[in-house]
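Ticket #4471: complex job returned nothing on first submit. Input attached below:
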Amino acid sequence: MPFYSNRDLQFQLFENLQVLELTQYEHFKDHSVETFQMVIEAAAKIAETSLYPLLTEMDRDEPQLVNGKIRIHAGMKKIIRQFGEDGWINATFSYDEGGQQLPNTLHMAAGFIFQAANYSASVYPFLTTGAANLIRTFGNKELIETFTPNMYAGKWQGTMALTEPDAGSSLSDLSTMALPTEKEGVYKIKGQKIYISCGDHDACENVIHLMLARIQGAPLGIKGISLFVVPQKRVSNGESNDVLTEGVYHKMGYKGAPIAHLMIGSNDGCEGYLVGEANKGLSYMFQMMNEARVGVGMNAAAIGTAAYYASLAYAKERPQGRKIGDKDPSQPQIPIIQHADVKRMLLFQKSITEGTLSLLLYCSKLGDIAHAGDGNEKEEAALLLDFLTPIAKSYPSEMCCLTTSTAVQVLGGAGYTTDFPVEQYYREARIHPIHEGTTGIHGLDLLGRKAIMQEGKALKLFVREISKTILQAKDMPAIKGHGEKLEKYLQRAQQTVGHLFTKVGKNPEAYLADATLFLEYTGILAIAWQWLKQAITAQQQLDLGNAENAFYQGKIMCLRYFFEYELVKMDALGKRLMAEDMPTLEMQEDWF
Amino acid sequence: MPFYSNRDLQFQLFENLQVLELTQYEHFKDHSVETFQMVIEAAAKIAETSLYPLLTEMDRDEPQLVNGKIRIHAGMKKIIRQFGEDGWINATFSYDEGGQQLPNTLHMAAGFIFQAANYSASVYPFLTTGAANLIRTFGNKELIETFTPNMYAGKWQGTMALTEPDAGSSLSDLSTMALPTEKEGVYKIKGQKIYISCGDHDACENVIHLMLARIQGAPLGIKGISLFVVPQKRVSNGESNDVLTEGVYHKMGYKGAPIAHLMIGSNDGCEGYLVGEANKGLSYMFQMMNEARVGVGMNAAAIGTAAYYASLAYAKERPQGRKIGDKDPSQPQIPIIQHADVKRMLLFQKSITEGTLSLLLYCSKLGDIAHAGDGNEKEEAALLLDFLTPIAKSYPSEMCCLTTSTAVQVLGGAGYTTDFPVEQYYREARIHPIHEGTTGIHGLDLLGRKAIMQEGKALKLFVREISKTILQAKDMPAIKGHGEKLEKYLQRAQQTVGHLFTKVGKNPEAYLADATLFLEYTGILAIAWQWLKQAITAQQQLDLGNAENAFYQGKIMCLRYFFEYELVKMDALGKRLMAEDMPTLEMQEDWF
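Support reply: We reran it on our side without changes. The output follows.
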């Protein structure tokens, strides 16, 4: 069963995004179309031969806590090691760190393939990369040398240990304590952490937690949070570092990845090693979290893509019913893909998954430019990425809950059974609006921070980039109308934002009350923009008489679908955002 | 944990719907507020003491096929028998059938409580009622006497056996064969049926299938389908009737109810007994199916309600974060219910679940009037119910997938774990847009049949009833504005329908291409209407100075929420329905 389209990924990277432009930067200069293609081919091979075959099994054979240790699917050990040996974990890092200086965009594209194949399995190396990235960026030489080689090799698992029972969305309230010891940089850690992905399992020799904690006497709130490396086993002697696994969470989906509840230092025997400066932990974490957030959007798009292709395959094969007006029961039934409503359900999935993939790769490229570029270009890329991050995290996450639901619907009763993978995709998609910041949190981030930072400079960049695409489309007769339509929506969006801005200082609660709706509103605009971009690229090929007509026509149809069925939702959201009635502010607890 | 609100159910039935009006009909004349309350109390007691305690267990301990028999949770036997002994299965039937002539509205209200407590458990008696209803309505005396008493008693399970591998949505293509025997009315049945709910289990002594099959030589298509009673065991001697269980489906949710794959007459040993006349099976089935469809809407609303109350309880208790602008970490965190975005998520759930419950009970009352009334009133009630049925089935089904998702979101990470019931509700809600006709099928039913039948008479009735409510609201200063707003939406909806009607004969494919969107569009209108009705009832109490201020204020707030956040969606849907671009018709299979 196909779980993604290599043809589309090629289009996204090389035709639409022009990813080869990145090789013009000094940092990426050794790369070429050949190295990029090798990365994609290698990813596809692992995905097809190692990850996808375990998709169902890993869902059925959940991690279990056995004698204080989480037992995971036996197949994962080999996979994690393979990720290490093949250089995936540190692929984007510099040569002198053993990396390949691979652009993040390519790493994300490979991740997309892994996630579409088996989301649970893809989580392990991804977390190790994130944790190692924190150590190599903010840690001293000793920490780097002690911890990163085995992480890069896939021998040790990395984690991000943030959440506590009383501190989930509100990280400022975390209370895990760090007590100084005689040795500089070494602290005794004590507390508990919950929902720690891959926080313990039996496929690696050690687990390296990048853990937030509060040094004794530090200020309250976010200003008193520090970052520590806390290994499960002491590196010096391989003995327990008093990080005990209290439990494993059983959950609705992505069951193949264990989520642990950890007790740290219950026996006063846990050592943690300070990363960077004291009290700067949250800012370190947030610098990395932005990448992780775009990554979550990618997870969602990937799962949505796998569900789309599963439902597409079914729709082509399943005969049921006849054309409207054709009721002759002696005639054979037609494949359901010929029904308009089924095509609508497929176009919905295709337009959301390919539209979000386009945005996510665009964001990844911004990240690469922010890293490898310089001057104004670098600064603008970073700023625009900052603005787009809550959208890139949340819109795919929310929408792929709906597209996977639509995939189930295409299969009908069959889709609800475990005989097909779509029900699993439906369950797995549901985590993404929650982890790495809930959708509500990202709404507040976008409207409360990103839209107003530097006097709205990021927002203006966003508008400028969309306007460029509109201008280009207006020069092409076949899609001129769509360019003009998006221009109207963009203008109206600017009016809406202007209206909201009048409330910023006057009534901050009212300003932010519908931040989640604003996030969706902006998300639709961003994806409509990405569809106009893709349509420009496709139309250029059609105008040239490219023989691969069907592929490009599909892109044009998705543009039309998205504008007709999704873009119009901005009308409803915009109306609400302009309204003055505030039931969510006036509602009282005892009225529910 | 509360899973529904008795206060709201009382409001819905006695204040808003004025259900006591039904006791004016001869058929219901023995009933009174006391008998109705007894029914509700009895339902609540079973739900709380028998059904809810098994909710989680039945999800974890799935039905299994053991030696050709489906083994279900051991607790179900007692529950099914209790439903029988307490008279729930035939409660709505006439006195001379051992029933209580209970209005369907009360039976549905009781069902709502059962379904909110444990949807899987509620399915068993519900199916037996449906099957028995077909026998007693269309079967001869012998069939009635042979089969219904043990079904009423909860000793025998009833089922609806329609679906086949090649005939799901397209029932006209079913191919199970019935060969006449020497005995009149007795046929040899041969074929297979899939997705048969409660098609086999070990909690009853026999399973009585109401099965669609084609008598040898019958016309092709829907005109050649007959209805049979096909018991699992012969009644005469208790021996096998050659209905073999080939498999049990494993599915995403409502795992407590077994769904069977049945082989019928594989050994040429299956007898079926014709119900009513030959070749009229589908019309018999459809007369019953309408009730079942409103029932599915109720299932969805009930599961949505249980999820709403679970998330409400959590939101009141869970401290996290602080008010906007208040960042002082030395102050305690506030319960999340105080955040505007959480209130929005709760108001969404409340407005959808109470709004759909209102519509569903309204439809049930129409059914009672269509049954017990006469003349014009009876005819109009039947016609309006016919029109509303696809909406009452589909809008709650689709929307409660979203409200249960929102319930998960309110709990955040906790909601994704199996430590809380919301993830189960999310999985269980997902079946309803599929069974008893997919949403797509109901869209075609509404736009292709119901909207145009009798020259649009049913549609006109719908508009008339909404207009009455608007007129009433416009007389009440507090909600006059909402009455006027709905009036504008109603007028625009009539224009939209008028526009669609221009396509009926000219281009039937274009007319029906967006039938699913039309269904949603009409659904929003119907629920906005129900909210205006509820608000009128609530405002009357507030105007009278009713001391129970909080409850009624909650209703007014929901009206405001629904109009601000949901009604506006008609703007987007309406724009699409008026548009001429038809990507779902033009899209080609090989362009995907």
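The radius of gyration of chain A is 24 Å. Closing as resolved unless it happens again.
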